[in-house]
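Input sequence (454 aa), recorded before submission:
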Amino acid sequence: MKKIILLILFISSFAQAQFSINGTLTHSLDTDWVVLYRIEGSKQKFVQNTTMTKDTLFIEGKMQTIGTFNFELPATAKASSYRISYRTSGTSFVDFIFNKENVNFTFHPDYPEQSILFSESKENTTYKNYLKDIFAQQQKLDSLQVTAIRNPKLDLKKSYKAALLKINSAQQAYLESTQKLYIYPFVKASFRVNPPELKTNVKEYMSAILDTFFEPIDFSNQALVNSSFLLDRVTDYIFYLNYSEDATTQQILYKSAVETVFTKIENAIFKKNVIEFLIEKFEENNNLRMIDFLFENYYDALPTSLQNAKFKSEKVKLLATAIGRIAPDFSWKEHGKDFQLSNLNDAKNYVLVFWSTECSHCLKEIPELHAFLQDKKNLKVIAFAMETTDLAWSSMKASLPNWHHVLGLNKWRNTVARSYNINATPNYFILDADKRIIAKPIPLEELKYLMEKL
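Predicted structure, token format:
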């Protein structure tokens, strides 16, 4: 009997040693799946997935469909930042902290960060209240600073000192009350170091903000590393605080900001993750100079064991044909003569088109393109035919005079086509006289439009 009772108690305690993650989307989605991830460095690690339950409720005078979901985490689940992902594009996730407690929250799927409300979880409610309280006080302080810059003759020193004392006192109180909580390093790192005195001009104020931006942040703290916090701060610092309308100055600011960031990061694995993150951020803006800068000065300097050869090769290959790059060179024979793309000098601009006689779209578009370009004297076409044999190509190229014709056998496996990342035909590249890629139009109509502009 005693053994049975002990067994029952053991099973009961084991069953209770689980934690629930409950979420409610205040507006329903077309999808009904939800995925739970744990954030590790700049990556996310799959934990579980589940389906969403949808209900129609009468809310604020009208019928609305909401979505609810639930995850159960074992007692062994790591305390960390977690992420709920609920769709594949647009705003698609919401982050929260888990530290051995149930978490219950609601949010609007289109703006989760602004709308999330926690009804259960001391960690998350405390941190949410902290951010709300400090943000409100910071706004008052910033308002005084902006007023002082606009009207330097106003005497706002006492008001600023009082507001500064209040926000610093509030920060200290939160630090003391959260010392034993998982969110403590977040509270410490979230606080802005404000100037002790009012600044009278924008340059001095921004200099003070930039100089102290990373001061409260410990880049070695694992709670911060395993969250989106550090990457968010790095993004703010590089892309928002270091801004100029002048393109040349902006590149200088980017480089300086990146250099500052990497003086703060000692952990090689996290440094690698941040470099890859920044490469992808600059890729969004097609900033090839900064991508090259990151590879040459930081990624290549990492220990070889940490470098991701696949990541680098994919980026190098992808960026080889990015707008702004010199087009990858290749050579061919034409009428018994040797030609090379880089050495062509018979036009002001070039259209490099990858096509195939086995492509129905090409059979329609290529003759249409030929007719359209008949009167474009300063433009030359290099027609690269991706074929399995030369039979159809030999016949069709005769109907397309005054073009450079290149035969690329092995079709999709052709090495030149692969160097240009060709996975569909027709595929167009507009080049300048130096063979620099200036546009990559997709439909023929876009190509025609750009040709009229040249």
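Checked by second reader. Residues 331-453 form a domain with the Glutaredoxin fold (CATH 3.40.30.10).
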